[in-house]
Amino acid sequence: MAKEIQDLVAEARAGTGKGAARQARRNGKVPGIVYGDGKEPLAIQMDFNPLLTKLRAGRFMSTLWNLKVEGQDDVRVICRGVQRDVVKDLPTHIDFMRTHRNSRVNLFVHVEFINHEDSPGLKRGGTLVVVRPEVELVVTAGDIPEQIVVDLKGRKIGDVIHIDDVELPAGAKPTIDRNFVIANITAPSGLAASDDEAEEAPAEA
């Protein structure tokens, strides 16, 4: 299922360079740039608080946005970078890339695990070890999936879940060309210790 395309509101920014960017920050704005699609880069600025709220909500860089700038046509964009203050970890600059609905883009998509209660391994006290909470996919910009779903039904202790075991959204393809691990189910420490002790115990005469 594709995500609903949400609006982002920005203003065109007069001037470029460090001086103009500093002035934008003093005015409570986050400076940024919009590039790509064979057009000239557009300097923008965004209100700090609404942007911070969206960043903290998560998955900002895996979301297709409808960028609205007064005096400009709306354009669909993907965030390609957020620079942050090294001390406060707050946004200081943001980069967007223009896309079309049929553009192919690389981005990280969240992995959602379902049916924990139907996993024999987890019922026995096993632990789900998530190796990749997100997977980088090549997707169509107009059909960015909400998530990749991994079904844990029937999964036992010792099972390893690879990318080839997962049904990916239509048109999506991993950027890594090998069958990498997404997660595994490990034995609980108590069970592992019991097994070790059983192996080490001397055989009775």
From TrEMBL:
<dbReference type="InterPro" id="IPR029751">
    <property type="entry name" value="Ribosomal_L25_dom"/>
</dbReference>
<feature type="domain" description="Large ribosomal subunit protein bL25 L25">
    <location>
        <begin position="8"/>
        <end position="96"/>
    </location>
</feature>
<dbReference type="InterPro" id="IPR020057">
    <property type="entry name" value="Ribosomal_bL25_b-dom"/>
</dbReference>
<dbReference type="Pfam" id="PF01386">
    <property type="entry name" value="Ribosomal_L25p"/>
</dbReference>
<keyword id="KW-0694">RNA-binding</keyword>
<protein>
    <recommendedName>
        <fullName>Large ribosomal subunit protein bL25</fullName>
    </recommendedName>
</protein>
<dbReference type="Pfam" id="PF14693">
    <property type="entry name" value="Ribosomal_TL5_C"/>
</dbReference>
<dbReference type="InterPro" id="IPR020056">
    <property type="entry name" value="Rbsml_bL25/Gln-tRNA_synth_N"/>
</dbReference>
<dbReference type="GO" id="GO:0022625">
    <property type="term" value="C:cytosolic large ribosomal subunit"/>
</dbReference>
<dbReference type="InterPro" id="IPR037121">
    <property type="entry name" value="Ribosomal_bL25_C"/>
</dbReference>
<dbReference type="GO" id="GO:0003735">
    <property type="term" value="F:structural constituent of ribosome"/>
</dbReference>
<feature type="domain" description="Large ribosomal subunit protein bL25 beta">
    <location>
        <begin position="105"/>
        <end position="188"/>
    </location>
</feature>
<dbReference type="InterPro" id="IPR011035">
    <property type="entry name" value="Ribosomal_bL25/Gln-tRNA_synth"/>
</dbReference>
<comment type="function">
    <text>This is one of the proteins that binds to the 5S RNA in the ribosome where it forms part of the central protuberance.</text>
</comment>
<comment type="subunit">
    <text>Part of the 50S ribosomal subunit; part of the 5S rRNA/L5/L18/L25 subcomplex. Contacts the 5S rRNA. Binds to the 5S rRNA independently of L5 and L18.</text>
</comment>
<keyword id="KW-0689">Ribosomal protein</keyword>
<dbReference type="GO" id="GO:0006412">
    <property type="term" value="P:translation"/>
</dbReference>
<dbReference type="GO" id="GO:0008097">
    <property type="term" value="F:5S rRNA binding"/>
</dbReference>
<keyword id="KW-0699">rRNA-binding</keyword>
<keyword id="KW-0687">Ribonucleoprotein</keyword>
<comment type="similarity">
    <text>Belongs to the bacterial ribosomal protein bL25 family. CTC subfamily.</text>
</comment>
<dbReference type="InterPro" id="IPR020930">
    <property type="entry name" value="Ribosomal_uL5_bac-type"/>
</dbReference>
<dbReference type="InterPro" id="IPR001021">
    <property type="entry name" value="Ribosomal_bL25_long"/>
</dbReference>
